[in-house]
Amino acid sequence: MSDGLSFDLTIRHPGLDLRLWADLPARGVTALVGASGAGKTSLLRALAGVLPATGPITLNGDRLDPLPAHRRGVGLVFQGAMLFPHLSVAENIAYGAQRAGTPGPEVERVVQALDVGPLISRAPDTLSGGEARRVALARTLAARPRLLLLDEPLAGLDPARKRDILPYLARAIRSAGCPALFVTHDTNESLALADRQLRIAGGRISDTAMDTALIPGRVARDGAGATLHVAGQTVPMPFAAREDEPWGLVVAPGRATFLGGDGPRVTDAPAVLPARIVSVASESVTVDIDGARIDWPLPDAATKGLQTGDSCAIALQTPIFRLVSET
């Protein structure tokens, strides 16, 4: 593909034998998943040019593999923040911007996306774990990377910190306007951030379809008490969001409940989305949720009596929110 990222790499080192290839679009987020030691971080390091590998890497028609790491235009974010301890937050971010010659307005856009303005005069050792991760990401994005690689960027943060930083991470990745790959062991992170998923197993990579639907909505109220207006429903959001920002709900079989037929319709789930059955098979139905369609596996007995056109609902006990790309 001329636009986007493609690679066909062989990575061989003691204890490591990988043959990995994929074609990815020019924008969007890809989650890299797999067991520990499968080679996820090795792939990121090979793409960045800091781990020897053989084979072509092409980004928007340009070959990267002949180039040294510092000329590839790759932004690499590690598990730890790795901020320069002797520099302030402002100086850490300026370091990335100066190396790339990034104009001031673009740096300010990054600062706003990650909300690090209030931290700008602070020293790294005064930051919380979540704040430090945001600053590290701001420093990387200020260098205007052509490709963004994130190695478990939320690892080590407690659930509350992860919940708070996720919207900043989502905004920053989307605003970067380049392909992004991130390594995660957390399925919720993958569903909340990624458009697609690649799984590494047995030294190979497979394009694992994310059997999900994204139901787009708009933030109806901003701040800590934000709510999302989606599919005619109002759903409380567990993090601070901005009014009229485009977020959506991720619907995935196995993480939600189908309500239809003779089953119960009463639920205490915080999000219940009205839907309509558009087709019925022996062990599944296809449902339409506000224009988005998804196949829903059901036991054969559960499909008895269901008909095309029937109303139903999808209950989300733990709603997962994803920022919607509007480009």
How would you characterize this protein structure?
It comes from Palleronia salina. GO terms for molecular function: ATP binding; ATP hydrolysis activity. This is ABC transporter. The model has no long low-confidence stretch (mean pLDDT 90). The longest helix has 18 residues. The protein is an alpha+beta fold. The chain folds into two domains: 206 residues, 3-Layer(aba) Sandwich (Rossmann fold); 116 residues, Beta Barrel (OB fold (Dihydrolipoamide Acetyltransferase, E2P)), CATH 2.40.50. Helix content is 22%, strand content 33%. Helix 3 packs antiparallel against helix 4. A six-stranded mixed β-sheet has the order 6-7-8-3-9-10, sandwiched between helices. It has a five-stranded antiparallel β-sheet with strand order 13-12-11-14-20. The protein is built from six helices and 20 strands.
Task: Kindly list the characteristics that best describe this protein.
ABC transporter; single chain; ATP binding; Rossmann fold; 6-stranded mixed beta sheet; 327 residues; alpha+beta; globular; ABC_transporter-like_ATP-bd; ATP hydrolysis activity; OB fold (Dihydrolipoamide Acetyltransferase, E2P)
